[in-house]
Design a protein that fits this description.
Helices cover about 70% and strands about 5% of the residues. It is mainly α and about 290 residues long. Helix 1 runs antiparallel to helix 6.
């Protein structure tokens, strides 16, 4: 079963990744929309600026092994025991996704197809979706239903980018979806796993002995209904907040060139040039 620490860790990973994608993709798109192509990861020079990537590539296998170890030693309800295994598998797949990215950067980019990397990411999101909210019912399940919907949005964006990498709107949805997931996963952890920020009239989530499932323990049925209404209001507030942040950020990048980052340098510039050279030489041949 998850905990506040698990949700907070996910928040710390998702927010920087989502904001980084939004910053770099928007900067590249604003520089030249006609040659824009989405990337599985946006690297920058010098290498220390990619600290978030190297942190993930070290942290994910450790987290995956921890979940697998809990799966082996957990003696509780079978549903929760196997949920640890599924979470371990999900983390491992995202780690493999990062390995594919770094392998593509360190070798010839054409050896590992970029579309395949996006497809792999989409499959990883789908497997994550199958794990979200497993063994959780009632009011608590509603929180994870929204989290699952955001995961499906990220998966759909990855699949679309694998076919059409020049679609900036799909990249924008993916970046915003990651940021939204980060804020909502933190809200879920605070609302379900703490008494201080929990729903009024309900105690933090625990396993119900009669059902074997996990849910909030509300004193009255009205408290549960009020909790669902508050959750819907919170989700709407998060959506408005993320939308405002993303549009304001895009507007700032559009109006101030100095704020842009990662404008096609190093390997990314070389790849863009190799992709656009045939496009530039074709009109010249036609003129001759």
């Amino acid at each position: 079963m998850a905990s506040l620490a698990t949700h907070f860790s996910a928040f710390l990973f998702l927010i920087p990744v989502g904001l980084r994608r939004l910053l770099f993709s928007s900067s590249l798109y604003l520089k030249n929309p006609s040659i824009y192509r989405s990337r599985p990861w946006y690297f920058s020079e010098p290498k220390w600026k990619n600290l978030d990537f190297y942190t993930l590539i070290l942290a994910l296998p450790i987290a995956s092994f921890s979940e697998f170890f809990i799966f082996l030693t957990f003696s509780g309800h079978p549903t929760y025991r196997f949920s640890f295994f599924h979470q371990s598998l999900t983390l491992f797949l995202f780690w493999v996704f990062l390995i594919l990215i770094i392998s593509r950067e360190q070798t010839d980019p054409f050896l590992i197809n970029e579309g395949f990397v996006f497809v792999f990411a989409g499959i990883s999101f789908l497997i994550e979706y199958s794990v979200i909210g497993k063994g959780i019912t009632g009011v608590s399940a509603s929180f994870y239903d929204f989290l699952g919907a955001l995961t499906l949005l990220c998966a759909a964006s990855c699949f679309y980018l694998s076919v059409k990498p020049c679609a900036f709107f799909a990249e924008f949805l993916l970046s915003s979806g990651l940021v939204f997931k980060g804020t909502w996963v933190l809200q879920t952890g605070l609302s379900l796993y703490t008494d201080s920020f929990g729903l009024k009239g309900c105690r933090k989530m625990s396993i119900l002995p009669a059902k074997g499932d996990a849910d909030l323990q509300c004193d009255l049925e009205e408290d549960g209904l009020r909790g669902v209404a508050l959750m819907n209001l919170l989700f709407t507030g998060h959506a408005i907040l993320v939308l405002l942040v993303t549009f304001v950020l895009f507007g700032l990048l559009s109006s101030n060139r100095n704020l842009r980052c990662g404008e096609a340098s190093g390997p990314l510039l070389a790849e863009l040039q190799s992709e656009t050279m045939p496009m530039r030489s074709l009109p010249e041949l036609e003129m001759e």
